[in-house]
Amino acid sequence: MSVISVPQAFNEDDLYVDLRSIFGRSLFLKCEGFNFAGSVKLKAAAEMVEAAGRDGTLTPGSILVESSSGNLGVALSIVAASKGYRFVCVTDSRCNLSTRLLMEALGSEVHVITEPDATGGFLGARLDHVRALCASDDRYVWLNQYTNPGNWRAHYRTTAPAIAREFPQLDVLFVGAGTTGTLMGCARYFRQWHRPVRVVAVDTVGSVTFGGAPGPRMIPGLGMTIRPPLLDVSYVDEVVRVHEADAIRACHRLARRGFLFGGSTGTVVSGAMSWLAEHDAAELTAVAIAPDLGERYLETIYQTNWVEGIYGKDVLPHDFNVPDQAIHQTA
Ligand SMILES: Cc1ncc(COP(=O)(O)O)c(C=O)c1O
Predict the structure, then answer these.
(1) Phi/psi of residue 83, each to 5°?
(2) Pocket test for ligand 1, best of 41, 199, 219, 301 (most atoms within 8 A of CB)
C-alpha cells in the first residue's frame, strides 16, 4: 500500500513494457506516465521547487512562472498547488486544450502565446513573455527548466538509479531529448556506473538540438529551436533522428496492442527500433524511456484527420509494418 499526503510523493518507477511481441525486438519501455501529473516532468518540477525553497529563492509570497509546452506546466501546477504557491504557465498555441484546462483546474494561470518569434518558433516569444513578467513584479520566480540543474539532477537521483536497479546488465539506453534534463541526468549517472552503457539520444527531424536543420514539428515534448543549455554532448554516445510520421506510426502500432502512449514515446520507440535493427542487438539489454501516456493526444496524434492533414494520406498503413526511416549520427 502507498499512502501519501502530497501528490508529488507518488511515482510508479518500476513499470516496464516488453516491446518484443509488438515490434519483434527486445526493448524494455520504462513508463513515466503513472503519477498525478501524468508525465516524467513531475520529477523535474518537484526537484526544482524543492531546491528553490531550500536556497531561499522561493518565499511564501512568490509566484512561480515557467515556459512549458504542457507537461512541465501540469507538473508545476501540481507541485505549486500542494505547496501553496501561485503559478503562471506561459505556453503557446500548440498546447493541447485539455492540458490547458488541466492546469487551470489545478489553480494555475495560463498565458497562451499565439505569435511566433523571428525564427518561426514559439520558444523565443514565450521566453520574452516570461522575462517581461519577471521584470514587472519581483514576486515572480522563474525556475527556468532550460538551465536549471535540478532538471537533470532529478533524473540522476531517481530515473537512472531506478533503471540500474532493475537492469544490472544494461547495455543501451534510449532517451528522448527536449530540454535534455532526462537525457543528461541519466547519461551522467551511467557514465560513472559499474559497466559501460551506450546512451543514445533520440531527437525529432526539424529540431536543432544536435545540429540538424530547423523544420516544422508538431509533436510536443521533444526537439528544440535552440541548442538546449543543459546539453553536454560529451555524455551522449549517439543520436538518432526520427521523422514525425514514423513516431506517429509507432504510437498507433502500440495503441493497436492496447498501449496508448504520447507522441514523444512513439519517437523514442521508433528511433530505438531502427537503431536496434542496424546493430547486432540480439544479445543486448536495451531500455527506452516513455515520458507520458496518450490521453492528452486524442485530438491530434490519435485523430486520423489530424494525422493525414499534416503527414499525408499514407502515413498510417493498415498492417503497421512499414519500416521506419530514422537518421543516425554519432554525437
Ligand atoms: C511528452 C514529453 N516527452 C519528452 C520530454 C523531454 O524531456 P526533457 O525535457 O527532460 O528532455 C518532455 C518534456 O517536457 C515531454 O513533455
Answers:
(1) -105, 0
(2) 41
